[in-house]
Amino acid sequence: MRGAALVAGAIGAALLLTTALVWILEQYLGVADASPAYLLAVTVLALAFGTVPAAITAVGGVLVYNFLFTHPLYTFVVADAGQLLNLVLLLVVGIVVGRLAAAQRQRAEAAELREREALALVRVGRELATRSDTRTALRAIGEVLAQRLGEGQTWIALGDSATRERGVDERAPFQPPAGYAVLHRQPGDVPPRWTIVRPPAASGSSGAQPGDGEAYRVPIEAAGRPLGAVWTVRRRCAGAPSREETRMLAATADQIGQALEQDRLRSEAISAELARRSDAVKTALLESVSHELRTPLAAIRASAGTLADGGLGGDDAHQVAQSIDDEASRLDRLVGNLLDMSRIEGGALQLSPEPYALGDLLDAVMRRMRPRLAGRSIALDLPAELPYVMVDAVLLDQVVTNVLENSVRHAPAAELRIAARAATAGSGQPATVRLTIEDSGPGVPDEALPHLFDKFYRAPSHSSRGGGTGMGLAVVRGLVEAMSGRVAARRGDLGGLAIDVELPAVEMPEP
Amino acid sequence: MSGARLLLVEDDPQTRHAVARGLEARGHAVEEAEDGAAALRRWEARRPDLVLLDLGLPDTDGLSIVRRLRRESTVPILVLSARDRERDRVEALELGADDYLTKPFGMEELHARIGALLRRAAGPAADAAGRVVIGPLVLDATRHEVLVAAEPVSLTPREFELLKVLVSHAGRVVTTGRLLRAVWGSSYDTETHYVHVYVSQIRRKLAAADRSGALEGLIANEPGVGYRVGMPDPAVS
């Protein structure tokens, strides 16, 4: 209403001013016919308010001029045909200029709308393009839409059907309303239409209708699969979203659909890549293991063949049989490590950690390893007052065995030192016992140290002799970490490789 | 120790054949059984001096054989088990098997275990006075006394009980669970760490008293299974 009053006032003011101008022109400056001055008012009104106010101004101008300035004065009678033509022209020009100006203004408004729409879509696109996490991006997009659509609420929900959709923004819990209009889109140029799915009246007492607005749902799809929807709830009097708003909602839904599809493809690509890498690992395993399996098998078959030929003296036969036994043990250790590795990786390790005196456990390993460590100088350095360690005895046995095996393989004649110390616990750090096993062998290059516990890794200086599957120390790390411990390699004080195994310590109450 | 009658229960013909020939080469008489049913038939017919039992049998659970034999006899049972059947192994020992070997094993190891079990079965560990002697160690059950090199070692009552159980099963594995129940009582079940701690203390005390070092490794830890006191070598004791 205020708008209409403003226009009426503007028309009145324009007519008044123009009439005054015409009066001055005709009365004082001697212009014979100043009626074109009304053209000015008509043009201004047309530019400012559109065709209808311009036409009213034109008619008004014609009437006022006719009334005040044409003979007979103060009547609406037009005596002069020329004057009449003038007036008609004024009217026509007023209407045409008004229409042109109004069209121009509409175009400007439409351009501005499109610009805002494009801006909103650019923001949507940017959110999706730069997303690290789609869910966060969708929350931001929800905010962009809410801002653009003004009053009312906007949600983005994901799910494969309207009833199973869940809002992406946990801060504003979302429940799909019972009744809503859904945007139907058809391929080609057919403009999308809103279709009421269930009338809001049917929602009954479900209470799912948020506020007292009308809900509009724009489905998000990718490759024909429903993925979710953009929802907007508007006040009843606001009516359905305009063409522009609809277009923006639809475009946003499309972009989200594409983004979700990208996510899916990417995660599929990642699984494919993981599968490929796992295949590569399996190939490496096969290559490494088949070599390690064949070597002892070759020795065993050769020895067995020699024995079968007969003709070997007692001592020689015994030696050959002994080599069969040694090679079979080597195979057994390899199979054991393979089994451990698959248990570690398959999460099938069965752990029963109990408090043990580390010395007791080392004792068992050393006893078993004695034949393989024969002839080496071994220094044991275990303080009497060492805290108990919380470990699985079988796994720790395997850990120490593998570390010793590694030394036997790569530094066969080196001195060996096995030491344990209670690690000083920092504040808030759990107490640990550090077991260090080091040898005076060739060691490994510093750059190889961090990789020593990687599966199938073989330090460069080692590959020339000894071989190995690169599994023993990987199993060490897997087992130690399973027991909540840590393992590290460094250059030792004896010049060779030192391996530190940190194990959780435990205070034992007297039983 | 030769000339014993052994029952070998093993389903894999290659392994069975090789092990049997190896045992025969040491002078034992070996009965072979390829499954549980055959094992029980041979057991009924021959009553061997020692049973070598593979736990993974095609027809029955090896554990049920252990249970059955233990109901009837104290015949030494040496369990042969695969590496991935750790639980079965402990359970077999809990049911009364005397020792175990993990496959694949070396024949030397097998001969040593069989020898220890046969020696153990041949005579009581304790003499008439209830004394057990292992090298420099003497455990006197009646006087509640432990001597190392003729010097008394002060053990708490629980430590003494624990050592007594281990020593009286010398040459055999005693599971942690059995030690716990034997020393602390049948209501104890999960407090197996008591055993580890006490064994550790006993070791420390024995090591302090044993200047000769002859008792080093007397109580051996069998990781994940239990403890074993080394059988005195007949030449030493």
Quick structural overview:
The complex is a heterodimer of chains A (511) and B (237). Chain A has 511 residues and is an alpha+beta fold. In chain A, 52% of the residues lie in helices and 16% in strands.
Which short descriptors sum up this protein?
heterodimer, A: 511 residues, alpha+beta, 7-stranded mixed sheet, 6-stranded mixed sheet, 13 strands, rod-shaped, B: 237 residues, alpha/beta, 5-stranded parallel sheet, 4-stranded antiparallel sheet
**Could you spell the SSE succession of chain A in H and E letters?**
HHHHHEEEEEEHHEHEEHEEHHEE
What's the main sheet of chain A like? 7 strands, mixed
Overall average pLDDT of chain A: 82
Strands of chain A, count: 13
Proportion of beta-strand residues of chain A: 15-25%
Please describe the biggest sheet of chain B, giving its number of strands, its sense, and whether it closes into a barrel: 5 strands, parallel
Give the end-to-end Cα distance of chain B, rounded to a whole number of Å: 16 Å
Question: What share of the residues of chain A lie within helices?
Answer: 40-55%
* Category by helix and strand content of chain A: alpha+beta
Going by helix content, strand content and strand pairing, the class of chain B is alpha/beta
Helix content of chain B: 40-55%
Overall shape of chain A: it is rod-shaped
What number is the mean pLDDT of chain B? 87
Low-confidence stretches of chain A: 202-210
User: C-alpha Rg of chain A, in Å?
Assistant: 45 Å
Q: Count of helices of chain B?
A: 8
Report, as a whole number of angstroms, the end-to-end distance of chain A: 93 Å
Order of helices and strands of chain B: EHEHEHEHEHEEEEHEHHEE
Number of helices of chain A: 11
> Spans of chain B of 5+ residues with little confidence (pLDDT < 50)?
none
